[in-house]
Design goal:
Shape: elongated
Radius of gyration: 17 Å
Largest sheet: none
Helix content: over 70%
Number of domains: 1
Strand content: under 5%
Distance between the termini: 15 Å
Number of strands: 0
Length: 73
């Protein structure tokens, strides 16, 4: 990746690490929301729609972007 307008301030390694850390953070956030939903549902017997929606939305977005990049790259 060549970024002439940023010069040597931001290089390809920085962008790759940022991409990787953001991806991992998104997966951990989705897994945490789904695990917290499961805990509340199975242990506390409370159906938390908000946690379910957040977890499922993160999974759907991740899978949709993976498919998009696979077919357009």
């Amino acid at each position: 990746m060549n970024l002439p307008f940023l010069g040597k301030v931001i290089d390809e390694r920085f962008l790759r690490h940022r991409l990787q850390s953001t991806s991992i953070a998104g997966m951990v956030g989705g897994a945490t929301a789904l695990l917290l939903f499961a805990y509340r549902y199975y242990i506390e017997h409370i159906f938390s729609r908000d946690l379910l929606v957040v977890g499922v939305a993160m999974v759907v977005v991740k899978l949709a972007l993976m498919a998009w990049y696979h077919f357009t790259d």
